[in-house]
Write a structure and sequence with these properties.
The protein has about 190 residues and is an alpha+beta fold. It has a single domain, classed as tt1808, chain A (Alpha-Beta Complex). It has 5 helices and 15 strands. The strands form 5 sheets. The chain has a 6-stranded mixed beta sheet, sandwiched between helices. A 3-stranded antiparallel beta sheet has the order 1-3-2, with helices on one face. Strand 8 (about 95) and strand 9 form a beta hairpin. The chain is globular.
Amino acid sequence: MNTKLKTLTIEDWEALPHGDGNRYEIIEGELFVSCSPGLPHQKVVMNLITLFVLFLEKNRIGELLTNAGLLLSRYSGVIPDIVVFLNETSEKIITGDRLTGPTDLVIEVISPGSANVRRDRVDKLNLYSKHRVPEYWIVDPANLTVDQYVLHGSSLTLSQTLQHEEERLSSTAIPGFSCLLSQIFGRI
């Protein structure tokens, strides 16, 4: 559900009742509200967390956060499912206890519903492109696909769509990280 009554700011966003079971995000001043994701969404997120945690424990090159508030402007505050950033990026994107700039990789797992699909595939893609996120994955549990977008110049462009379980997804922003599609969608 989205509502557009007035252009909202981060100050408005921070005043919303976070923790009530809904996810509140502001994209270019517009409020987007979604409910808690279902089990397939959560299982895919857990699979990705496990893959990245194992990788980052062996390769101490960065950090992973889940459901962290990402403030990209005065009018855009979102809560991606997963963000990963390199150690050298952290100095540029952390202000106090907030992420205030583009992380190296943003991962969104699509929940059912046309509003959710549009938000991740259109609104957030445009937002992350505008703020020059180096890499963006859109993970679709319903169709068992991953769209990998990579920053080229000033915009994110579709690099590949993976749809077969034996295909390997390699990050362009997180050096050395790769996994099979079957590892992302296992046990959902």
